[in-house]
Design brief:
The N and C termini lie far apart (56 Å). The mean pLDDT is 96. β5 and β6 form a beta hairpin. The protein is an alpha+beta fold and 364 residues long. α3 runs parallel beside α8. Strands 1, 2, 3, 4, 5 and 6 form a six-stranded antiparallel beta sheet that branches. Helices cover 45% and strands 12% of the residues. The protein has two domains: 111 residues, 2-Layer Sandwich (Phosphorylase Kinase, domain 1); 240 residues, Aminoglycoside phosphotransferase (APH), C-terminal lobe (Aminoglycoside 3'-phosphotransferase, Chain: A, domain 2). The structure holds 2-acetamido-2-deoxy-1-O-phosphono-alpha-D-glucopyranose and magnesium ion (MG). Magnesium ion binds next to loops.
Length: 364
């Protein structure tokens, strides 16, 4: 595949020098476009996974609406809209994406230079900055009145996930179910607890708002001083509950091991990181969260981690159709590691609730 040829279909400034692969996303393929001159920006080029994102044009519209809105907010507070918000670069025909002859969808945004991303949160201070970033993002998009298209129906909706789960288990397409009775019971024994939480979202007791939905630490940019700059990877901006953003961040930030760690002893949830993130998040979000949302904040960490156990195990039982894998047991390994993290959160749950209450009281 000629990546330079793909890049030529976008309105880039400068002359393209080379295009290189970047990172190892589970979903999309990401490249960096280097331009020759230091005066012209570099760019991020992504091939969007069309199997997962079945409506890329609508997804790009969502992203554009959110980016424009965030830019307005950044300008209003005298910030730098080229660094504190993402900039989508349209194709030469003006569309927000380019579709190649294999009907693959590509999109480009400006690469923000002099930034750092982290693969783990080693200190509460860093977690604080990350929490502040997510809280700021949510508060900036809170008054975005244009509706977003629901491009991933049921994304963090556990009722929807159970429907998928029940269908996959009934089918058991590659015969893996028989050896997984214990792991399946991890899911089943918590089904009611998780559905009871989701019912509060369904009845509106917990409101839905515009949220990011993929708040792992790699999806946030820090400047060279270590202060948070902006949130990236907006593929999953949707109407959902803010709690999902908090919970997904806690699944990522507090994990002392890797998401797919083979050494389960290395995996646990670090409560000081939980505290640091919560302080940063609530420093921004306390102004708009309802009492019900605050009450369930700590629970959301368990909820999203549980959902992730379910999604990894379900993909394993399904024969590995969703996540990219590095080997036949990769999704199983991910399941075990995420389950270990979940049990660690469960052990510390009372403490987590206390931390949320104390911080919220201090800020009130
Ligand atoms: C996927 O975009 P990426 O690779 O960071 C997934 C998330 C999962 C995550 C697990 C659209 O995120 O929901 O939590 O992998 N995104 C999608 O690390 O399914
Ligand atoms: Mg993503």
């Amino acid at each position: 595949m000629d990546l330079k040829k793909i890049a030529a279909n976008f309105k880039l400034e400068g002359i393209v020098d080379r295009v290189e692969q970047l990172g190892e996303g589970f979903i999309n393929d990401t490249f960096i476009i280097h331009t020759q001159d230091v005066q012209t920006p570099n760019y991020l080029l992504q091939r969007k996974n069309k199997r997962i994102f079945t409506n890329v044009p609508a997804m790009m519209e969502n992203i554009q609406k959110v980016c424009n809105h965030v830019k307005e907010k950044v300008i209003a507070r005298n910030g730098d809209p080229t660094r504190e918000a993402m900039t989508i670069v349209p194709a030469t025909d003006g569309k927000l994406y380019f579709q190649d002859e294999d009907r693959e969808f590509w999109a480009v945004c400006v690469y923000i230079s002099d930034t750092i991303t982290y693969s783990s949160a080693k200190t509460p201070e860093l977690a604080y900055q990350g929490g502040k970033g997510i809280g700021m993002f949510q508060s900036m998009v809170a008054d975005l009145n244009e509706p977003l298209t629901d491009i991933l129906p049921g994304f963090h909706n556990i009722r929807y996930r159970f429907n998928q789960w029940d269908a996959v288990l009934a089918k058991d397409p590659v015969g893996r179910k028989a050896n997984l009775s214990e792991e399946i019971s991890w899911i089943e024994s918590r089904r009611e607890e998780m559905l009871n939480f989701w019912k509060l979202v369904e009845t509106g007791e917990i409101p839905t708002r515009i949220t990011h939905n993929d708040t792992k630490i790699t999806n946030i940019l820090f400047d060279l001083k270590g202060d948070v700059l902006c949130v990236i990877d907006l593929d999953t901006v949707l109407n959902s509950t803010c709690l999902n953003d908090f919970g997904d961040a806690m699944r990522s930030y507090t994990n002392t091991g890797e998401e797919d760690d083979e050494n389960l002893d290395a995996v646990s949830s670090n409560i000081s990181i939980f505290e640091g993130f919560t302080k940063g998040y609530l420093s921004q979000a306390i102004s708009f969260l309802t009492r019900k949302e605050l009450e369930y904040l700590a629970f959301s960490a368990k909820y999203i981690t549980y959902e992730q156990v379910l999604r990894f195990l379900m993909d394993y039982i399904d024969g590995d159709n969703y996540y990219k894998i590095k080997g036949p047991e990769h999704n199983y390994q991910r399941t075990l590691a995420q389950y270990k993290l979940l049990t660690s959160m469960e052990e510390q749950y009372d403490e987590m609730c206390k931390i949320v209450r104390t911080i919220a009281d201090e800020l009130a």
